[in-house]
Amino acid sequence: MTAYEIAHKVPSRAEVNAMLVTAPIGIRRLSDRLTALEHPSGNMLVSHGPDGVLVVDCYSDAMQSLVDKAIRSFTTAPYRYAVPTHFHYDHAGGAALFAGGGAAVVGVPQTRHRMAAPHRAGHMGVEQEAYPAVALPTLTYGDALTLDLNGESVGLRSFVAHTDTDSVVHFAEADVIHTGDIFVNMEGVPTYPFVDTAAGASTLGVLAAVEHALTLCTTSTLVFPGHGPQTTSQHLAWYGDLLRTAHESVADRLAAGDPKPAIVAAATEILRSFPLENPLIEDWLFISDVVDSLQVADQLLPAR
């Protein structure tokens, strides 16, 4: 077991699914052709119109019938694209629903690799089985991809961040961004950034992804996190400041020769400007991941 699992009771996937299917899915129209599905498990964005349906995130496989019913309550357009923001089951589990309806599942090549095999997430230890073949991505991209449909340019940008399969999705005309789990905003459950260390994750990548997302933001951008209610670019900027401050402080301490245990022990001091009460991911665990990411990257920080 990981240190995190020892300190916390992490629910199994079956326990999580049992809770998820009892909660209703909220439906919120953002524009004539863009709708948000909001649920305790996360957020989906649905582009719908004459060119078909594109979904960002797919929820868990246990929710497929609920998701299909929710989408069919406001559009009969055929499924065309499904874009899981990463391969974890609560974001890609329902991909089979859309693929079975004719959609191309979209991701980076590593998404297909990860989905084709069982996985046990780092820190939290949540296990997932290999996905059925129908759910695997059939449209893969490298650094970036733009999908044009329903009068909207949908921009995808890939990062090795929360996992090595992350996509940040930007609806340019609607001024809406879906961050996936590079950013979470769970009400009543504050947390420092979580990276899946068993899936090639990097806190440096989270920093790069958040700072990229901020370049796309206006003062009125709607930001949909991987979990939790829609928020603002100002909140995302606060999160970016947290990430930048943590990495700069840790990099300075590494350059001064401080060992990892001493840096981790100073986590509360490093994050003193960003205090969180009883966070899901504690400050020490986040700073430990920052140390590891910087050491792998030879302490190089991306330029502002």
UniProtKB/TrEMBL annotation:
Pfam families: Lactamase_B (PF00753). One of its GO terms (molecular function) is hydrolase activity. Transmembrane segments: none annotated. The keyword 4Fe-4S does not apply. Residues 41-227 form the Metallo-beta-lactamase domain. The keyword Hydrolase applies. Keywords: Hydrolase. This is MBL fold metallo-hydrolase.
